[in-house]
Design the sequence.
């Protein structure tokens, strides 16, 4: 639903021709509601659609002809699903030795590799939900972080395999997985336990690494403020007129400020409550200290930076809704990556695609009549 489409999105935004092979009625993410309503339009721009019945002989024949023209095949099915259709890596590698085959799964090879997985499943079993929630109440991260990250790592592996193929002429099997993404994300906490011998508490109740790294109440709102170096502490004390704090020997280093938080935090809270949020933001920006308002995702539609920098891309969902969504967080030669086309409807552009594979117009109509493909003008 997200992992495979993210992998394709990264490659498509970078300029690849990406063809989404999906069932005749379109893939299920097109019909999701609630928390899944944005999955299809967000992750499927810059792609073409081939709506095909891969269980029909004519449909599988078409797909194999398509694969013969491809540099890369990506798949995000349950373990063994494509093998049953004759489209597994071992079955295709002999026919197409230059093909790079990227399989996006719940787990890399090992005792768990037969299991299905979802983002929430691996967040729970990989410790990420524990580190996000309260000590007795694990909580998933507020985004499909492992699905998106898994797609990104798949794309990275594909790009490396393409470069290697330039040298060897041979394809490669690339595998990316959700569970290992989670382990990679919580590696810093694993290392902390190994180095200190102490079990890190969830981030919600953690002992911070920095003395001032918190959300503070202002006179009219809230603001996150970070003072993470000794130089920044000097700047803060000087610019806010807190000479007594700046001269306090107990607060000279970050480690000391961490240890003195019990009395330091109430003092800082009193300082920030004297300021309105907008005035405090201007002050912190002027003196170069990190800060952030507490926003909601939909507030980003009006974010001046994203709007000025081309960070939001206009998308039209095939269901008829138009909206702006974030582009890839990349610049190449100072330019953001463009949208070439909106997420396709099922079979949109498939007639031209099938014709490019050598099918005559009457053969294409026959495929449609036999319900091997679905076409949309």
Sequence:
């Amino acid at each position: 639903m997200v992992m495979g489409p993210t992998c394709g999105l990264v490659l498509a935004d970078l300029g690849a021709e990406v063809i989404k092979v999906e069932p005749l009625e379109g893939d299920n993410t097109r019909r999701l509601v609630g928390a899944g309503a944005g999955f299809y339009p967000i992750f499927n721009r810059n792609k073409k659609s081939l709506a095909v019945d891969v269980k029909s002989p004519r449909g599988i024949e078409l797909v194999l002809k398509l694969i013969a023209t491809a540099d890369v095949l990506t798949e995000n099915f349950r373990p063994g699903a494509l093998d049953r259709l004759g489209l597994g890596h071992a079955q295709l590698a002999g026919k197409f030795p230059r093909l790079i085959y990227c399989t996006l799964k719940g787990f890399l090879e090992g005792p768990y590799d037969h299991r299905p997985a979802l983002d929430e499943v691996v967040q729970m079993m990989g410790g990420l939900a524990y580190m996000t929630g309260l000590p007795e109440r694990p909580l998933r991260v507020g985004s499909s972080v492992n699905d998106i990250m898994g797609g990104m790592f798949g794309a990275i592996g594909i790009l490396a395999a393409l470069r290697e193929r330039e040298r060897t002429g041979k394809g490669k099997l690339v595998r990316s997985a959700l569970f290992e993404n989670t382990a990679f994300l919580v590696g810093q906490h694993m290392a902390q336990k190994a180095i200190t011998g102490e079990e890190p508490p969830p981030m919600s109740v953690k002992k911070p690494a920095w003395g001032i790294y918190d959300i503070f109440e202002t006179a009219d709102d809230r603001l996150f403020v970070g003072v993470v170096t000794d130089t920044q502490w000097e700047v803060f004390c000087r610019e806010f007129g807190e000479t007594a704090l700046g001269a306090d020997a107990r607060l000279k280093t970050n480690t000391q400020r961490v240890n003195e938080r019990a009395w330091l935090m109430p003092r800082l809270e009193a300082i920030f409550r004297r300021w309105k949020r907008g005035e405090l933001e201007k002050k912190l920006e002027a003196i170069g200290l990190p800060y952030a308002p507490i926003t909601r995702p939909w507030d980003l539609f009006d974010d001046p930076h994203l709007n000025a920098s081309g960070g939001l891309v206009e998308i039209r969902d095939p269901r008829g809704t138009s909206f702006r969504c974030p582009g890839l967080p990349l610049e190449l030669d100072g330019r953001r990556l463009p949208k070439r086309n909106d997420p396709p409807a099922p079979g949109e552009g498939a007639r031209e695609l099938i014709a490019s594979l050598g099918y005559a117009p009457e053969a294409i109509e026959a495929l449609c009549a036999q319900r091997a493909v679905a076409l949309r003008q």
Remarks:
- The chain has two domains: 3-185+299-374, 204-297.
